[in-house]
Fold this sequence. Notes:
Elements: H1 2-18, H2 30-37, H3 41-53, E1 57-60, E2 64-67, E3 83-84, H4 97-111, H5 125-136, E4 147-150, H6 153-162, E5 171-176, H7 180-189, E6 193-199, E7 202-203, H8 205-214, E8 217-222, H9 236-249, E9 252-256, E10 280-285, E11 297-300, H10 306-316, H11 322-333, H12 336-362, E12 368-371, E13 377-381, H13 388-397, E14 400-401, E15 403-404, E16 418-422, H14 428-446, E17 458-460
Parallel strand pairs: 3-14, 5-6, 5-8, 8-9, 9-10, 12-17
Antiparallel strand pairs: 1-2, 4-11, 6-7, 10-11, 12-13, 13-16, 15-16
Helix pairs in contact: 1-3, 2-3, 4-11, 5-11, 6-7, 8-9, 12-14
Protein name: Histidinol-phosphate aminotransferase
Keywords: Aminotransferase, DNA-binding, Transcription, Transcription regulation, Transferase
Domain HTH gntR-type: 2-70
Amino acid sequence: MEHKYNRIMDAFRSDIESGVIRPGEKLPSIRELTARFACSKNTAIRAYEGLEKEHLVYSVAKSGYYAVVRPASSRGADAGKGIDFSSAAPDPAVMPYEDFRHCMNRAIELYKDRLFTYSDPQGFGSLRQALRRHLADGQVFAGPEQISVVSGSQQALHLLAGMPFPNGKQVVLVEQPTYPGMLRSLELLGVTVIGIARTDQGIDLEELERHFRSNPIKFFYTVPRFHNPLGTSYSQTEKERIAQLAAAYDVYIVEDDYIADLETDHRADPIYSYSDTGHVIYVKSFSKVMLPGLRLAVAVLPKALIETFRLFKASTDSSTAALSQAALELYLNCGMYGRHALNMQARYRSRMEALNSACKRHLPEEARIHVPKAGLFSRLLLPGCLPASDIGAQLKQQGIFTVPTDRCYLPAFPKDNGLRVSIIRTNESQIEEGIERIGRVVRKRLRHKPPLKWDPVIDWLE
């Protein structure tokens, strides 16, 4: 039995990874498998469950098993050759392919008269109603007229960076470090940008107030929850104070809540929920929870910005993809999205727990990392005698892929000596192996250089 079980797994693993079995293709039923391999039903089920644990297949209740992984020939040059701590794209093993296929097919049946014409640049009215209910579950209360469906959160950020605001100010304030996609948009648009330091401990609120008071800040761009690349989140006190300062100094807040659906603390409300003056713009992406290629996100706008945002969006994108909008509407309304988000929370939280445990065991005290309880990212700070770019290059040679955090800074702002560690494309065993190898590389390099003494490494954030 053991021999047949392994033989079944080897056969399907080879066909999936070579592309003989395509992504999303349904695999033979248990009955077909028992006949093909002359095995018992239990052996067939065990083989599929083994492939599922390897994230090569996924199961759909009352339907069967489906392939997940893309053919090796279609992957990037580095994918599949090591442990990927660098990616920000969702794990294909947790994507709801079959559920969303049903929604796509149903959307074509229900909305065929609307799918192949230009729609309202602000988004389907029925989808915005569904989004109003969805956002309210996260303490973002807004009418459908304030909601704009956009082609990914990057589009919303780019439009906001380039359009005029009612306060008449021109400068954008950003956290340092911050999401590099926002920095690219600001640079391309020629916007004047200044930075404010954000650390694992948060932000200096007195310094933030000095910026709001002394500089013509159009808006403050912040990632308050599961920050990219730090992984940390603001406390309730910090979020309340940021909202108060925005109102006091007529500064807008652009709140990038890109993975709100991974939040496990139901008391962790967005900055938007603390503002009653219309100074917070809330942006939420669906790319990290659903299929990134659908390019769907939502911007919740103060009433004073609705018309300007609509005009700027219409000038660059007459309408967001209609089929994606219709499918998302069905996905939200039937409850599939909520169930899938809970699954994502559990999977990624388990990986973060594995990361925390591995870091405690394998990293030397000269390296520092804060591992949050949820989210996708953590930042590994290295001692100054070990440049992050050198360590990253050495790790890459060993099949460990990371991202240096220096790309998350403005050119003139002091940079840290860090690597971003992402758990989105790893599993628990890869995390254990990868962190052990990172610790080994750092220790070996430190033996040849005088170490910079720091306090012990790990803080398990509350």
